[in-house]
């Protein structure tokens, strides 16, 4: 089940990357590249940081074909994307949770400590979006708007806690998804966010 959610998630992320590229008036290559980076960038950075070689997508070419195709397809259906906004939000939230859990599992299998496992989960969950925004010359949205990176952190903590308590794996996944989706969608609905740090030296000058 996690694999199917992962495939849906990377498709949705690729499409979000393509839309971001379209806002910057990129050509076909740019759209395909940004779609690929958005969908698979988090896992790539995770594998590089953890020394987990070969990088996952190099062993599964289907992921490359799927993400680039989804990005290019988005160009054809872009005029209808606003009608699918709600569905996209749900798929994006599911992707965040799936990426986080997968990242945690990769780090666990490699024998890393709990702190590193949590960071690996978060890196997998949010870094694709960070790379997308950097390449599109924007401040990463995951670090400045509704709760997003924080949801990844909380999901990772919950997943590892339930795993430590020997909760059935399927039940653990269900609980992590329900919890993550609830927090993420509630954050969107009511604009929940963390306190913002705004540094302006002039505010404190005499």
TrEMBL record:
Q: How does it sit in the membrane?
A: Multi-pass membrane protein
Q: Where in the cell is it found?
A: Cell membrane
Q: Name one GO cellular component term.
A: plasma membrane
Family per UniProt? Answer: Belongs to the UPF0126 family.
Pfam families assigned:
Gly_transporter
| UniProt keywords, alphabetically | Cell membrane, Membrane, Transmembrane, Transmembrane helix
Protein's recorded name: Uncharacterized membrane protein YeiH
Glycine transporter domain boundaries: 4-78, 90-163
Membrane-spanning ranges = 62-80, 87-108, 114-135, 147-165
InterPro entries registered for this protein in UniProt: Gly_transporter (IPR005115)
């Amino acid at each position: 089940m996690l694999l199917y959610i992962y495939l849906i998630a990377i498709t949705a992320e690729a499409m979000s990357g393509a839309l971001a590229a379209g806002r910057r008036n990129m050509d076909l290559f740019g759209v395909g590249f940004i779609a690929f980076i958005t969908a698979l960038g988090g896992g790539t950075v995770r594998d590089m940081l953890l020394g987990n070689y070969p990088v996952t997508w190099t062993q599964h070419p289907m992921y490359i074909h799927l993400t680039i195709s989804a990005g290019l397809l988005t160009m054809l259906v872009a005029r209808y994307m606003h009608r699918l906004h709600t569905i996209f939000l749900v798929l994006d939230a599911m992707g965040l949770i799936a990426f986080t859990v997968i990242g945690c599992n990769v780090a666990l299998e490699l024998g890393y400590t709990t702190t590193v496992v949590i960071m690996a989960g978060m890196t997998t969950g949010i870094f694709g979006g960070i790379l997308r925004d950097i390449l599109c010359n924007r401040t990463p949205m995951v670090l400045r708007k509704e709760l997003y990176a924080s949801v990844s952190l909380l999901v990772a903590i919950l997943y590892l806690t339930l795993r430590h308590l020997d909760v059935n794996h399927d039940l653990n996944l269900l609980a992590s998804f329900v919890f993550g989706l609830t927090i993420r969608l509630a954050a969107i609905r009511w604009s929940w966010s963390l306190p913002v740090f705004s540094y302006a030296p002039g505010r404190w000058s005499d």
